[in-house]
């Protein structure tokens, strides 16, 4: 994969709030930085206004609209959020690999032609992926967003974890039984590894090019990690996650980028792998809400910054409950002055009350600054 983007990185606005980057790099901070997975999206009325009933992927591909939607939560919660995350989706990698992906309103992602036979996989393996060309729109949206953020907060780039993408590519959408993905790894483990490697190669180039385009911090979403047994996670997820952490910085050097770009891994449900994830080369490990913060802190033993992990469902509670749970979380992670980033344990829901989320963020600032 070659070619270059024409981005004038010298023209990027100076970052005024680098709290997120400092915390992710393990430096001591004055309070824990805050952001929320899926902080842009359907719970915000201004999202629906900007999207104007258009197709989801069309919205992602329109740089102006993607930048607007990315910045909406930062604007609404001015001073309370310490990062933005580019409005896009993990399923743009399968699209770049030649697969059709649609988002069906009210149903979620849908692949009309999922990978069901070895011939289907061979076709994807033989497809030459030109990341710069296929995902050109994503880089343009990142560059525009970075400019429009005016240095207020850093911008996250992201991608899906290889196993999670294999799940979507084989199941053709969300799943309860993971029948096809499990069939792949158990009936055709070798071919599955080849596919995982190909996804990993694309993910590495995609993440590195997102940094060239303007992303300042990266997250890998292995959202279906918890569907694997511990042994299968070690075979079909962890090695690829590690490769991404190892190879992105190398690729960045090749691309002439010497800045230290922190990387986060979020393997939802993979509680058994926390110890290994803390030594997998990522600076930050994001936790779902199944973790007791104090136990996670013990296992981590100051190797990485931990991120998380409020049950998003707490937002449906009273202010008193939100305060109580937020306090327990921040104190459990050691108070938040080192090795901690505030987040939910998974994304926002479309039904959430924007003012409850504001209250949560204000409480994080109050408790985290104490
Ligand atoms: C698994 C996964 C996907 N996409 C993503 C993940 C990993 C995180 C996770 O585990 O939730 C990641 C993602 N998806 C989206 C973002 C944008 C940035 C942000 O977090 O604010 C990010 C980081 C926007 C989106 N991606 C999607 C929407 C909803 C689009 C809409 O209907 O308007 C948004 C805002 C669509 C999507 N995309 C995906 C699903 C399952 C869905 C349907 C979700 C649903 O219906 O709740 C795949």
TrEMBL record:
Pfam family, one: URO-D
Entry's localization field: Cytoplasm
BP GO terms, sorted: protoporphyrinogen IX biosynthetic process
Primary residence: cytoplasm
GO molecular function: uroporphyrinogen decarboxylase activity
Keywords for the protein's UniProt record, in alphabetical order: Cytoplasm, Decarboxylase, Heme biosynthesis, Lyase, Porphyrin biosynthesis
Gene3D superfamilies named in the record: 3.20.20.210
EC number: 4.1.1.37
CC annotations in GO: cytosol
Residue span(s) of domain Uroporphyrinogen decarboxylase (URO-D): 33-42, 156-172
Pathway: Porphyrin-containing compound metabolism; protoporphyrin-IX biosynthesis; coproporphyrinogen-III from 5-aminolevulinate: step 4/4
Reaction(s) catalysed by this chain's protein: uroporphyrinogen III + 4 H(+) = coproporphyrinogen III + 4 CO2; uroporphyrinogen I + 4 H(+) = coproporphyrinogen I + 4 CO2
Cross-referenced HAMAP family: URO_D
Function: Catalyzes the sequential decarboxylation of four acetate groups of uroporphyrinogen-III (octacarboxyporphyrin) to yield coproporphyrinogen-III (tetracarboxyporphyrin) with the formation of intermediate hepta-, hexa- and penta-carboxylate porphyrinogens in the heme biosynthesis pathway. Acts on a number of porphyrinogens, but only coproporphyrinogen III can ultimately be converted to heme.
PANTHER family named among the record's database cross-references: METHYLTETRAHYDROFOLATE:HOMOCYSTEINE METHYLTRANSFERASE RELATED (PTHR21091), UROPORPHYRINOGEN DECARBOXYLASE (PTHR21091:SF169)
Family from the record: Belongs to the uroporphyrinogen decarboxylase family.
Protein name as annotated: Uroporphyrinogen decarboxylase
Gene source species: Vanderwaltozyma polyspora (strain ATCC 22028 / DSM 70294 / BCRC 21397 / CBS 2163 / NBRC 10782 / NRRL Y-8283 / UCD 57-17)
Taxonomic placement: Eukaryota, Fungi, Dikarya, Ascomycota, Saccharomycotina
């Amino acid at each position: 994969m070659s070619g270059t983007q024409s981005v004038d990185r010298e023209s990027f606005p100076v970052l005024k709030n680098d709290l997120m980057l400092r915390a992710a790099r393990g430096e001591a901070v004055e309070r824990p930085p805050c952001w929320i997975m899926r902080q842009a999206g359907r719970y915000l009325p201004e999202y629906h206004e900007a999207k104007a009933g258009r197709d989801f992927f069309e919205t992602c591909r329109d740089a102006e609209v993607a930048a607007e939607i990315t910045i909406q939560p930062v604007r609404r919660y001015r001073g309370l959020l310490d990062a933005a995350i580019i409005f896009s989706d993990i399923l743009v990698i399968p699209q770049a690999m030649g697969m059709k992906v649609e988002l069906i309103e009210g149903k979620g992602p849908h692949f009309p032609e999922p990978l069901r036979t070895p011939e289907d996989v061979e076709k994807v393996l033989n497809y030459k992926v030109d990341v710069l060309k296929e995902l050109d729109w994503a880089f343009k949206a990142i560059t525009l967003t970075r400019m429009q953020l005016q240095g207020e907060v850093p911008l996250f780039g992201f991608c899906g974890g290889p196993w999670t993408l294999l799940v979507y590519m084989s199941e053709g959408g969300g799943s309860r039984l993971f029948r096809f993905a499990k069939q792949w790894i158990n009936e055709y483990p070798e071919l599955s590894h080849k596919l995982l490697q190909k996804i990993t190669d694309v993910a590495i180039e995609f993440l590195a090019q997102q940094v060239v385009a303007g992303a300042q911090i990266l997250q890998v979403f292995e959202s279906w990690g918890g569907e694997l047994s511990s042994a299968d996670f070690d075979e079909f997820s962890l090695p690829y996650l590690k490769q991404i952490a190892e190879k992105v910085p190398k690729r960045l050097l090749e691309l002439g980028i010497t800045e230290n770009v922190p990387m986060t891994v979020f393997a939802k449900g993979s509680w058994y792998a926390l110890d290994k994830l803390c030594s997998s080369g990522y600076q930050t490990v994001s936790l779902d809400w199944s973790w007791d913060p104090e136990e996670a802190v013990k296992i981590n033993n100051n190797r990485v910054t931990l991120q998380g992990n409020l049950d998003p469902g707490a937002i449906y509670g009273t202010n008193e409950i939100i305060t109580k749970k937020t306090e327990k979380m921040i104190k459990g992670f050691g108070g938040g002055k080192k090795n901690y980033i505030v987040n939910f344990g998974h994304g926002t829901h479309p039904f959430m009350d924007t003012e409850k989320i504001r209250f949560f963020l204000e409480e994080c600032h109050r408790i985290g600054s104490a």
